[in-house]
Write a structure and sequence with these properties.
This protein has 168 residues and is mainly alpha-helical. It has helices spanning 2-21, 26-32, 39-47, 54-64, 90-94, 101-117, 131-139, 143-153; strands at 86-89, 124-127. The protein has a two-stranded antiparallel ribbon with strand order 1-2.
Length: 168
């Protein structure tokens, strides 16, 4: 849990830096956003006192006119080594039975990526460089934890060559 709190602080610091670089106070953000972004909420995100969802982070990035990636921090998060590639088995993803919140989010995320890429007929989904990072953040988990979940759920395709560090 400490890693999650540390990560929230790091993302918050980036949010504050972007806002300050734009020359805006917290109050100015609330006024400029017509009350969409309340002073207290943005301040809580910036201090890392309040976790921020990917959807809210993306909205704030749009409001500040910066790419979401500029707000994401790589520090303090266990990461999967990028030597290989990650491939999801779509029939396995679609047949997940447990329907835990994490599995529901994974299914929705896969559908969204398919829409973005215009790829509906494939039986596999190759994840790109930042995909695992964004999915891990959406799930509020470390990348290595997400990889372990994928292995446990049996959704990694046989051609996937990324592995969880320490696993055989």
């Amino acid at each position: 849990m400490e890693n999650t709190a540390t990560y929230a602080v790091q993302v918050g610091q980036r949010l504050r830096r972007v806002r300050q670089q734009a020359g805006q106070s917290l109050q100015a953000v609330e006024v400029r956003s017509n009350g969409r972004w309340r002073t207290a909420a943005v301040g809580s995100y910036e201090r890392g006192d309040r976790n921020i969802s990917m959807a809210v982070l993306a909205e704030l990035a749009g409001f500040y006119d910066v790419p979401v990636r500029a707000l994401l921090s790589d520090e303090g998060r266990p990461r999967v080594e990028r030597a290989g590639h990650l491939v999801l088995d779509l029939p396995a993803v679609n047949s997940l039975e447990g329907e835990s919140p994490d599995q529901v989010l994974l299914k929705r995320w896969v559908q969204t990526v398919q829409q973005w890429r215009g790829d509906y007929a494939g039986r596999v989904l190759s994840l790109r460089g930042s995909d695992l990072s964004l999915l891990a953040m959406s799930l509020n988990r470390a990348e290595v934890t997400v990889m372990s979940m994928f292995q446990e759920w049996g959704v990694l395709h046989a051609t996937s060559s990324l592995t969880v560090p320490g696993s055989s």
